Structure formats: C-alpha cells, structure tokens
# Entry
Amino acid sequence: MEKMIINGGGRLYGSLQVQRAKNAVLPLLAASVLTDELVRIREIPKISDAENMLRILSELGCGIVREGNDAVIDSSNAASHEIPAVMTKEIRSSIFMLGSVLTRFHRAKISYPGGCDIGLRPIDLHLSGLKKLGVEIVEEGGYIHCSADRIKGAEIVLDFPSVGATENIMLAAVKAEGRTILRNAAKEPEIVDLQRFLNAMGAKVQGAGTADVVIDGVEHLHGVDYTPMEDRIEAGTFLIATAVCGGEIEMSGVFAQNLAALLHKLRENGCKVYIKNDKIVLESKGRLKSVDLVETSPFPGFPTDLQAQYTALSCLAKGSTLVVENLFETRFKYAGELKRMGADITVRGRTAIVRGVRSLQGAPVTACDLRGGAALVIAGLAAEGRTEVLDLSHVDRGYGEFERKLRLLGAKVRRIRI
Ligand code: UD1
# Structure
C-alpha cells in the first residue's frame, strides 16, 4: 500500500500538459479486437485502469508491444471470448469488451463488472441494447453468456443516455448486418472520440455527440494508428486544485468546450479563466465565493466525475453550496473524510449542503473511490498542515504521475510505501 503525504497551504503555479483521456482510452483498447490488423494507440496515460485493460487484451490472446507510451495491439491470434472474472472485478470498463468481443467472435462470456464503489451501476441498458441486435443473453452463476450467429442492425432507444451502453452498442453494431439507430445516446466527447477511431478503422458511424448515433455495419475493419482525445476530467481536477489553493495554471492540450460547465462555475467562484487555442489559463486570488447550486448531469452538464473535486473547493468558498448528484447513488462517501479535515458538509442521499469554512486542517484520510480520492488530495493541498491520503490505488486508476504533476505546480507532495 502507498500513501500520499501533502504539506498543504501553498499556492499552485505552472503549466501542465493534460494526459489522454482514461474514458476514451479504455473503450478504444476494447475496440482494438475488432480487427486482426495492428492497432496503435498513442500516449496511453500511466494509469492502472489502462494497464488492466491491456492485461485483459493479453488474456484474450492479443500480442501487446509497448513503444514508449504507445501500445501496439496485435489481435490476429486472439482466441478467447472469455473475459477473466478477476479482471472484470477490478475494472468496470471490461464491460466494453462485451460489444467488441461479440463482434469478433460472435460470443462473449464476462462476469459482472466492478469499478468505483459509487452505487449500483447496473448494466441492464447494455444488455437490452445487445438483445435488440439479436444477441442471445444467458445470465448464470455470476456470468453473462452472450451469443449471436448474426448481429443485426436495429433501432434502439436508451431509457437513459448511458455512456457505457452507448459505447458498447456502437462496438457491437459496427459490423452488424444493416443499420443501427441508437436514440437517446450519451453525448459525451469520449463517444465522439470512439466514433472517430472506429471510422478511422473503416467503420460507418455518424451522429456521435448528438442524441442519435447511426451505425451502418461494414464487413471489414482495418488497423489504425490513433491518438485519443484529452482527459477533460484530469484537466478539470488541476484547474479546481489551483482555484482553491490560489495561484495560476496553464493547462495545455485541452478543448475548453469540453469543460464549459466547470469553467462557468469557476468564473462564478471568482476565478479568472482565459482560453487561448488549446490552452486554458486560470488565475485565482483571495477567497472564492460559493455558487448556490451545482448539479451533475450528462454532457454538456456538470460532470459527475468532477463533483467530488468541486465539493472540496466549495468547502473553502465563502457561503453555502448545494451539490446534487444525479448520476450515481452513493457518490458522497468522501464527504466523511473531508469532515475529518474540518469541512462542514451535510449529506442526505444524493444531495450535500456544503457550508464554506475559512480553513481546513490536514488529517489522515482514506480514498474510497477514484474521484473522491482526488477531492481529498485537493483538500490536502489547500489545508493547513500535513495530510496523509491512504489507499492511493483508487487515485492511480485515473491520474497518471499525479504527484509529479502536482510538484511541477509547486505542491509539496510525496508518496511513501506503508
Ligand atoms: C462512464 C464513465 C464514468 C462516468 C460516467 C458518467 C467510463 C469508463 N466511465 O461510466 O467515469 O462517471 O460515464 O458520466 O467512461 N445505468 C443504468 N443501466 C445501465 C447503465 C447505466 O441504469 O445499463 C445508470 C448508472 O447506474 C448511472 C447512469 O446510468 O446512474 C450513468 O451511467 P453510465 O453513463 O453508464 O456510466 P458508465 O458508462 O459506467
């Protein structure tokens, strides 16, 4: 086990290049088995979720060559349609393998997926979408067995714009017979990135980024050399950290439109935000003002993946903030840890009332999920004195070289083994 020691209270200054998006890289890695030609995915972030996904691919029989930060995936010898249970427990995105493995082998076996402990996270929308495409699904002994001699295009209406279900259905439909129309699809930028990747392999997908995604099945998909989109959540995390600690940051390689909801809030908090091409510059001086309400919703709304970090910021702003989590049931577990640092938060179900305090005090705290862990790091950076964040493995799922990047901004952080 490792923990992060933070000596808080300093401002953050400097420039960072954002990593490639976890939530784009994971479905792209899953998609690499759609072809038996070589797939190169560039600049894979140094995060454990990506490593686990690569491990799943090698369990399926894919050859993986690492060249610097790139991964070259050769799935010409992939033979297994079974995603090992031990892997699916670790990483929820293993569920995307369902769509791509089905396309490749016409059958797939997977155990119920894991991931962050932030609520029930059912997969009913994935499964009902696949059924519409003619896939037979049998659930037995904790496993899901899928099979389809022929995958056939269909019209699918999602009850909710689930990111994972949208991506999985795209992966299952990409070589189906005929046209699939997916309505009420998720509009997240990572869906657009997946479309771009699939089309670069020879697929015919259009509409990603809107509520209707149309997939015309093709017979053959070929190899691709691809650089995934930027990690808007990592960028947002560093912007929030700088906003609450005070200072100035220049984040490069970001498309500001993908962070519009957060940037709007940060301006309301009193930060100055400038956008220059692919750069966002944020300046923060003095105590932030709270915003009355922040409510998570699917893109382009405020991202649930920045809710915890933004709540950490609100703990130190002047005034009260009502935080409403509309996507996941139990995404406030970190609030109890923030309270140990002196935060004034009341949580009821999916709602938290945060009353801003003048200062937080460093304390030993434990990360219980990925973004909640990032919120604790942010609180530690802004707090007086020493904070220890335990269970860093959660944070390592999504933030590559987190301490190195924080140190580049002048933060006093280090990691030690315990
Ligand atoms: C993805 C992201 C995650 C982000 C989330 C919402 C990846 C790897 N992960 O997760 O970081 O927090 O989008 O932006 O991209 N739901 C169902 N049935 C289903 C599927 C989902 O009820 O079959 C519900 C979920 O319980 C949740 C909501 O839909 O309440 C959103 O989930 P979804 O968009 O599917 O999130 P993920 O794809 O799991």
